[in-house]
């Protein structure tokens, strides 16, 4: 089930986020940069704000948050800022369902295009996004150590 996150989901989302980030950052950047107390507090506060604004979706399996996605407008462009799936749920369709729910929300809102940044060492996520129609931003392909990808939102469900 995909649903809008509530404040009661904050602890589960923050824990899932930390677990997922460790899988792709560990060994590439210092642990403190993605898993230290200050970073955990910063990301938790970010999730709390996004949940309060109604910009977070949860994928629930067996009563547990199995994945989460956050999106919103940044500098006039719809941005998928987070999409995380609990590693134990990888390859089970959770990410695909979350992605489809995001695309449907964008389509209903008349959003023509979306943007995201993905850590360039996270090949698994890059493959996921490519499979779902994301492509390198032709004007700005890189932001630091993150690739910038774009997605053209289909005008209707037949375009998915």
Layout of secondary structure:
Blueprint: E1 2-4, H1 10-25, H2 31-35, H3 37-52, E2 56-61, E3 64-74, E4 77-85, H4 94-108, E5 113-119, H5 123-131, E6 135-136, E7 142-143, E8 146-152
Helix pairs in contact: 1-3
Organism: Streptomyces kurssanovii
Pfam families: Acetyltransf_1
Protein name: GNAT family N-acetyltransferase
Question: How would you portray this structure in words?
Answer:
By secondary structure, the protein is of the alpha+beta class. It contains five helices and eight strands. Strands 1, 2, 3, 4, 5, 6, 7 and 8 form an eight-stranded mixed beta sheet that branches. Helix 1 crosses helix 3. The mean pLDDT is 90.
Query: What is the string of SSEs from the N terminus onward?
Result: EHHHEEEHEHEEE
Shape annotation: globular
**Count of extended strands:** 8
Overall structural class, as computed from helix and strand content, comes to alpha+beta
Helical residues, percent: 25-40%
Report on the biggest sheet.
8 strands, mixed
Number of H- or I-type helical stretches: 5
CA radius of gyration: 15 Å
Mean pLDDT reading? 90
Ends apart, CA distance between termini: 20 Å
Catalogue the unreliable spans.
Answer: none
Keywords: Acyltransferase, Transferase
Organism: Streptomyces kurssanovii
Protein name: GNAT family N-acetyltransferase
Domain N-acetyltransferase: 1-154
């Amino acid at each position: 089930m995909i649903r809008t996150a509530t404040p009661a989901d904050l602890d589960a989302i923050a824990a899932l986020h930390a677990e997922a980030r460790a899988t792709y950052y560990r060994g590439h950047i210092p642990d403190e940069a993605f898993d230290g107390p200050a970073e955990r507090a910063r990301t938790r506060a970010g999730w709390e704000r996004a949940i309060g604004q109604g910009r977070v979706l949860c994928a629930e399996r067996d009563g547990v948050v199995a994945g989460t996605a956050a999106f919103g407008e940044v500098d006039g462009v719809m941005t998928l800022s987070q999409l995380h799936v609990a590693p134990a749920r990888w390859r089970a369709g959770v990410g695909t369902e979350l992605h489809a729910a995001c695309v449907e929300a964008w389509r209903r809102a008349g959003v023509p295009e979306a943007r995201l940044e993905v850590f360039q060492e996270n090949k698994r996520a890059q493959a996921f996004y490519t499979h779902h129609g994301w492509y390198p931003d032709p004007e700005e392909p890189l932001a630091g150590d993150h690739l910038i990808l774009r997605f053209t939102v289909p005008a209707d469900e037949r375009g998915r």
